[in-house]
Amino acid sequence: MISIKGLHKRFDQLEVLKGIDLEVEKGKVVVVIGPSGSGKTTLLRCLNVLETPTSGSIGIEDQSLDFSSSVSKKAVPPFRRLTGMVFQSYNLFPHMTALENVMEGPITVKKESKEAVRKKAEQLLTKVGLGDKLDYYPFQLSGGQQQRVGIARALAMEPKVMLFDEPTSALDPELVGEVLKVMKDLANEGMTMIVVTHEMRFAREAADEVIFMDGGFIVERGKPEDIFTSPKEERTKQFLRLIQ
Amino acid sequence: MKMFLNSIIADPERVSRLIDIAQSSLQPLLKGAILYTIPLTLITFVCGLILAVLTALARISSVKPLQIIARIYVSAIRGTPLLVQLFIIFYGLPTIGVVIDPFPSAVIGFSLNVGAYASEIIRAAILSIPKGQWEAGYSIGMSYPQTLKRIILPQASRVSLPPLSNTFISLVKDTSLAAMILVTEMFRRAQEIAATNYEFLLLYLEVALIYWVICFILSIIQGRLEKRMDRFVS
Ligand SMILES: Nc1ncnc2c1ncn2[C@@H]1O[C@H](COP(=O)(O)OP(=O)(O)O)[C@@H](O)[C@H]1O
Ligand SMILES: [Mg+2]
């Protein structure tokens, strides 16, 4: 399903990803943990091609991009549509209502009919528990509600993989649960997901695999119960002690 | 001033003559405003804004030659007096065989001017939109032009509305410079009328008052517009 091979990303002098290899099967949920600055965000951004990797390749379903040679600009937007991105800071469009935020992609990019898109967008917003907030602007919504609109907006493009970059870390504690619930529902429906989060409960309950990243490498990977209860690598142990 | 007032009060005939002139000149002055000042302002503002958006996009583009052309244009316009620019177009170009009528000369001159100043406003507004907005657009598969048009420019236009309104109001007043290149707009008409009856103070005060009323109305509209555009921010 997802196949990342030898992925490197360098910003000028700083090498942030130092060779990431990762396979994810369809329908699996992978949680990525690791200290700040370890390259988690950069990895997700490379998958969504918001950053252009320095070298390596990414394959999703039957499409792949090889960054070792130069990638044509035309190939990027269709590849990008395979993944849906949920940002830490939501990044909703402030001049559009919740409904318009969700409708924007299908209408502008896929040129789908407005009527059909409206129905789909209403269903998606209802699914994330915002059926009664369709005409609210982002500033009228709580952080948790905004993030759920963000999830619905990404889903509206019908991506094959959903990427979440610390989706709850900007939220007040009492709002974290409602977002995690939506994500768990999505996982149960069989969505393939890569989630950067330090919500251990989510990792234990929803993840098929946990990946620990440090210094631009995948240091350790395994089932959540194995990683959390008996990590093998010293760095993983240290990190888990810090966050628990 | 005191002498002027005294001379008026002491001389009822002068008062009624002044009232007469003020009344009879109102119509040609307003005609000048409606036929020239206002159309000139509107046409140049629209042309200028289009030019400004293109210039702003050129300046933030990654294409070096475009950037450089845009920078030179903005710098040249901002670094030279508007009146000199108008003179170059209207009195200068004919010496190399390019003859342009007064009104189109004014349109060209003012449009170039608005284009340069407004491009800086628009550029700053575009740059003020958080990077995350571009990325959110890209992440749902939008292209650069789609993101620009649907996501960035609508937000940038809200940011740039107050400074652009100021540009517009300045433009209304600046069009009086078109009098110098023979456009018979409101101020030129005031000059012409005053030349026949020597009541310079009266006519220039009258024309000033009309500019003031127009700008006052515009500032009210500006306030309303800003309120409306603010509906989607807290
Ligand atoms: N656009 C960029 N330019 C330069 N350095 C960057 C950029 N984005 C991220 N970095 C650097 O890359 C490193 C990894 O960042 P990031 O992927 O955000 O880590 P994480 O999400 O694990 O905290 C950090 O040291 C960060 O400063
Ligand atoms: Mg991060």
Automatic annotation (TrEMBL), chain A:
Coiled coil: none annotated. It is a peripheral membrane protein. It is found in: Cell membrane. GO terms for cellular component: plasma membrane. SUPFAM superfamilies: P-loop containing nucleoside triphosphate hydrolases (SSF52540). It comes from the Bacteria. Keywords: ATP-binding, Cell membrane, Membrane, Nucleotide-binding, Transport. InterPro entries: AAA+_ATPase (IPR003593), ABC_ATPase_HisP-typ (IPR030679), ABC_transporter-like_ATP-bd (IPR003439), ABC_transporter-like_CS (IPR017871), MetN_ABC_transporter-like (IPR050086), P-loop_NTPase (IPR027417). Residues 2-240 form the ABC transporter domain. The keyword Cytoplasm does not apply. GO terms for molecular function: ABC-type amino acid transporter activity; ATP binding; ATP hydrolysis activity. PANTHER family: AMINO ACID IMPORT ATP-BINDING PROTEIN (PTHR43166), L-CYSTINE IMPORT ATP-BINDING PROTEIN TCYN (PTHR43166:SF35). This is Amino acid ABC transporter ATP-binding protein. It comes from Cytobacillus praedii.
